[in-house]
Write a structure and sequence with these properties.
This protein is α/β, with parallel strands linked by helices. The protein has four helices and seven strands. Strands 2-1-3-4-5-7-6 form a seven-stranded mixed sheet, sandwiched between helices. Helix 3 links the parallel strand 3 and strand 4. The radius of gyration is 14 Å and the shape is globular.
Length: 146
């Protein structure tokens, strides 16, 4: 069983992630409502999969993801954002992650993406080609609109 951590400061989205994983059969998902709380968990537990919002107080999801990668080099990372942004303004070299844009329009596809990320399967198989794209400035980041 994979250890999953969700870091999200919006209680509605935090609850949504908890519910999605519960519906997918995951009984133990760690939920953190701040980057500080999430970082503490990352330092204390072996986390396999991190989901984090990008825009949060005190620390961005990008910063948290970079710290997570240093602590746990093999961690799988999915960042989420409700903002369209130019990623070239951030130092994301070597981050290697997925970026899922809010709002989510198809929770079935979101669950498929989660399952594939957790299992190491091909995340792109049978997904609508318009639902993902590589970032030109950061080719190790795949952007998703689901």
């Amino acid at each position: 069983m994979k250890n999953i951590l969700v870091v999200e400061d919006d209680p509605t989205y935090l609850h949504l992630w908890g519910r999605l994983f519960k519906d997918m059969g995951f009984k133990k998902v760690l939920l953190a409502s701040s980057p500080k709380e999430g970082l503490k968990i990352l330092k204390e537990k072996k986390i396999d999969f991190l989901i984090s919002d990008v825009v949060m107080k005190d620390m961005s999801g990008y910063e948290l993801a970079k710290l997570a990668r240093k602590i746990l080099p093999t961690i799988t990372i999915l960042l989420t954002t409700g903002y369209q942004t130019d990623l070239s303004r951030y130092d994301l070299v070597g981050l290697k992650c997925h970026l899922l844009h809010k709002p989510y329009h198809n929770l079935t596809d979101v669950c498929i993406l989660l399952e594939r990320l957790l299992s190491g399967e091909d995340v792109f198989a049978d997904m609508d080609e318009d639902s993902f794209s590589e970032n030109i400035d950061n080719p190790e980041i795949t952007e998703w609109t689901l």
